[in-house]
Amino acid sequence: MNELNRTLAQIATPDESARQAAARYLDTLTKPPGSLGRLEELAVQLAGITGELRPDLAAKAVVVMAADHGVCEEGVSAFPQEVTAQMVMNFLGGGAAINVLARQAGAAVFCVDIGVKAELSHEALRVRKVRPGTANIARGPAMSREEAARAIEAGIAVARELAGQGFKVLATGEMGIGNTTPSAAMMAVLCGIDAEHTVGRGTGVDDAGVERKRDVIRRAIACNAPDAGDPLDVLGKLGGLDIAGLTGLILGAAAERLPIVVDGFISTVAALTAVRLAPQAIGYLIPSHLSQEQGHRLLLERLGLAPMLDMRMRLGEGTGAALAFPLLDAAVSIMREMATFESAGVSGGPSA
Questions:
Q1: Structural domain boundaries in the chain
Q2: Does the N terminus or the C terminus of the chain have fewer Cβ atoms within 10 A?
């Protein structure tokens, strides 16, 4: 856990002086103060994260963490477990929804096998497998505390590698049949609420399937007795390798002072875990959209984050995050290209 501890110690709060400079500059542009709303807030946040008034965010990457979940034995998904491996190959072939939306946004997609229950081979696949899927959380812990830490460190390593390759923005994505169940279980413990408020339909289960998921989560919490005050304990006992990998990706991005665009429900559970480990990481999170998964709105509220989009999506993969990329570009373009009152010779700007 040396790398995890080193990363946690490295995460600093965003640069407040850069934030204030960005806010002052926005008020010199040819518009009423604050009239661009969330775009202005985003421009200020990006300045604080990067320390630059007009950061270059052209190089973007979506990281899809892929892993299998033993809890699928309980019938919590509408799809069979082998779909995880099949979808990984679809990502690598460029045919999934995230590939399409990332191409539109000018972003690269990287798929990481952090725990798929199959041996996959592809030149573009990043293999960081900690173990071939988790155990069934309804009958015992998903993984050991050490495995959870190793998966987090794998995500940190990916973030650092991509930062070293020149990527300036990272986004979270995931693939793992059954992964809404461990996510909902973690949320129930970390937020101190019952599974009734955290469980959604995931891949599209019916009413009976939703109730089955709630029962599985209650049994998982009862048999594992996770410590709500110890996020690593909660992650190891109830979580997934994909969730752990995303937690590390978020922490690694924050340590590298990179904006991290957060996708939907599962990614936000990882974000909550990251913030519980390093509260300063909150300033690096850019919430992309509101998922249709029931617990997502509450998760965002607990983090104090407001999503930029509501497209009624629940696919995952990083698709909502990819849709938010153009908003980051717009915020930076405002800072780079919009005239000031002085330069445009327009009356009504701030007094000197």
A1: 2-54+335-344, 60-327
A2: C
